[in-house]
Amino acid sequence: MLEPAYQADVVVVGAGVAGLAAAHRLTSAGVTTTVLEAAHGVGGRMATEKVDGFRLDRIGQLLSTAYPELRLTPGLDGLALLPFAPGVLLHSEGRHHRAGAPARTGGARGALHAVRALASAPRSVPAPRRLVPAPKAPGSQAAVPRSRPGAPLGSAVDQARLTAALTRLAGTPAERLLARPELPAARALALRGLPARTIDGFLRPLLAALLCDPDLTSSSRCADLSLRAFASGRLCVPEGGAEALPELLARTLPPGTVHTGVRVTSVATNAVTTAEHGVIRCRAVLVATDARAAAELLPGLRVPEFHPVTVVHHTTDEPPGTGASLLLDADRGGPVAHTAVVSQVDPSRAPAGRALVSSTVLGPPPPDVDTAVRIHLSRLYGVPTARWETLAVHHAAEAVPAMRPPHDLRRPVRLLAGLYVCGDHRDTSTVQGALHSGHRASAAILTDLGAGGSMHTADPLPTARAA
Where is this region: Disordered (predicted)? Predict the structure, then answer.
């Protein structure tokens, strides 16, 4: 029997970061791959809008330099990640304080030294429980004084406690975190015996920003992994906007791999049907779209709930004096969960002489979101905002898949031999999760195809049908 004619070994449906990362691993293994994207550009939710010389992210999820897949994914060698100032800047009771910055005295030993130095004061109180339980060695733990009642958040005691806890967390293997009982993140924090000022003044606003989940309904395991990444690296943004990451992946694939403006209407284990080019035959299909679009092509696939996100972009010629810091509202005194003068982190996002302030609202936005955000930003930054110019308001009702417990961090990517799925809805709802799901899917495809070298020469797509 003659071997059927294939136009590609693998067709990837969707040119988000998961699909593009999988395509890189497949092409690197000699598997001819065609990526089909319905939109006229790549990146999916990692999109950046250009307005009058500004680069405005539509969602702008926070990245971490500690994400392993940013180093492991082929094609991302040239990605420039620009970090925020160390830790985060917290607004609490009308003042700012920095928290979560690495110990200046050097690693775990420096953090422990800071705690012991505070403990040398002539008073004795029980040490608070740590974020990550660790085995106690006799005589190895010194008592840490509690903050004075009514003392402002961000005191030396608060800083030492956080530094020591985050240092331990950074050194905890992920397997240990995943072995913990799974609860909603808010419930897990309440049960760990942490001081209320630590939870409400630091962990709650930080986790809300990392997970896009203001009520902390996410799995405590996912929350622990996010805190571990925060403790191990620096929060950052891609230079040039969120779109820089998927565009770099697409640009470094073999020429002719990615085809935009192609709508896939159905999939099978050996073919996809498109509205523009008819049937495209292949040996395997990888659906790498968002969760809802994937379920339309793969009936029965679970569609998660989503966290809505609204991003409001303003410009001013007099930037607030917070530098390159990520500013969180520990008081929850308005709709803004976190904000930053993004042009201080990445100058390429604003024209010379102008500042770009990007603010994120989590959950359903208020009716007049721009007015509410302006009022809140005036309190957060301590400057008038009435004359700031609004550049854009981007609302995404299905911005981030929810990770409520029980949450399987490694949902299957192989549905049938020849039919696969990937995306942040199969892993964690982060860029790291999307990239890793593409990694897992490409590994499953290579195993099933037995790929070890060049298999087929990719043929061009059939001529587009007339509208």
Answer: 125-154
